[in-house]
Amino acid sequence: MSSARRHVDFEPGGDPAVTEPLSDNTADVIVVGAGPAGSTTAYHLARAGLDVLLLEKTEFPREKVCGDGLTPRAVKQLVAMGIDISEEAGWLHNKGLRIVGGGVRLQLDWPELASYPNYGLVRKRDDFDEQLARQAQKAGARLYERCNVSGPVVDDRTGRITGVTAKLGEEKREVTFHAPLVVAADGNSTRLSLAMGLHRREDRPMGVAVRTYFTSPRHEDDYLESWLELWDRRGGQERLLPGYGWIFGMGDGTSNVGLGVLNTSDSFKELDWREVLKAWCASMPEDWGYTPENMTGPIRGAALPMAFNRQPHYTKGLLLVGDAGGLVNPFNGEGIAYAMESGQIAADVIAQALARATPAQRELALHNYPKILKDTYGGYYTLGRAFVKLIGNPKVMKIAAQRGLTHPMLMKFTLKLLANLTDPTGGDAMDRIINGLSKVAPKA
Questions:
Q1: Phi, psi of 312, rounded to the nearest 5 degrees
Q2: What's the predicted TM-score (pTM) here?
Q3: Which residues are 255's β-sheet partners?
Q4: Alpha-carbon gap, residue 358 to 98, rounded angstroms
Q5: Of 143, 115, 165, nearest in space to 58 by CA
Q6: Coil, strand, or helix at residue 310?
Q7: What's residue 212's pLDDT?
Q8: Is 244 within 8 Å of 230 (Cβ atoms)?
Q9: pLDDT digit string (tens) for 247-289?
């Protein structure tokens, strides 16, 4: 924990050199939400010597809806946080992605890159999230569990957020926390962002993930498995849905089986996706064990906010990270890697800003955060939005699955594109094409 807790003035004319004793409810930065985005932000802030409050509404361990599969992008972030990701520590390593569709099964290894490791991981979210939160604690962040943030504290004169109100503990004691900067890491619903007037952009795609667990002999699979053709065959008709199914072995005797669906089709709102998942599982080979009697938990669903669907990512003392800022990759529905990456970027920007001498200089530095996000992901996410519109057409999706899977080199390119796994410099021809497309695409 920082040994020099201090007051930082963001008001023009304020004296940034003034220091005063601070209470336990005051910090340099408040981070709301201890999921991957919030815990990563808090970890890197604490490592930079800042005093950080990390507020989590639930108590660990706690479950979240997720595929539990981590790509090499997420692995890189875990390594940067000093997490022990060895198999001895309970992490299941995987070699790549197996794609099923158009009557073809194609197994693709994660690419060999200088920028990312060549393996992915699998870990249940209840345990995964807690490990990140505890790592932030070890770095010096002050974690409050069962701390339900009820709203922002706003300066009437400036409209800046200066803290949050919350209900703490089993008795729901009302408390107020103060900090010159607040990070919203409270997920897709992000009540804090809404209270500050930041609403979801309707012109950005939204997905839904629905998943459950089954006892299965496939639990130790070396590959994440993705089914590109998601058929709804109920009622004697066949419909190809805009999304994909997944099967991830958990290494603990169970498989995580689920589907991700996009809101780009007419069927998005009219279908009961839990029933679609049940029907899809019923079409699987019987010896895989994806039957109702082998189900180890209920079917749960969650929204996937994509492609910067809430902006700006910084305004009036509030920074958005992870799902709160719509950081989910529209190509593949991956959220954890981008939650952690945005948390690291936000922490770096905040640390630099708080070291500036005047309020104007600090604001200048903070406004760089959305610019860095757009430079890093903007063009790629624009390509992803175009991709989402294309696969929303069942005919396009069918042709892509049937024709594309018969060309391994094309699918290797597609894997790099969909998983956003390229070397920024010194990569191969595929890397240069994907990086070039991302650079020329509008960074909206």
A1: -75, 160
A2: 0.92
A3: 214, 249
A4: 53
A5: 143
A6: strand
A7: 95
A8: yes
A9: 999 999 999 999 988 876 666 667 788 888 998 898 889 999 9
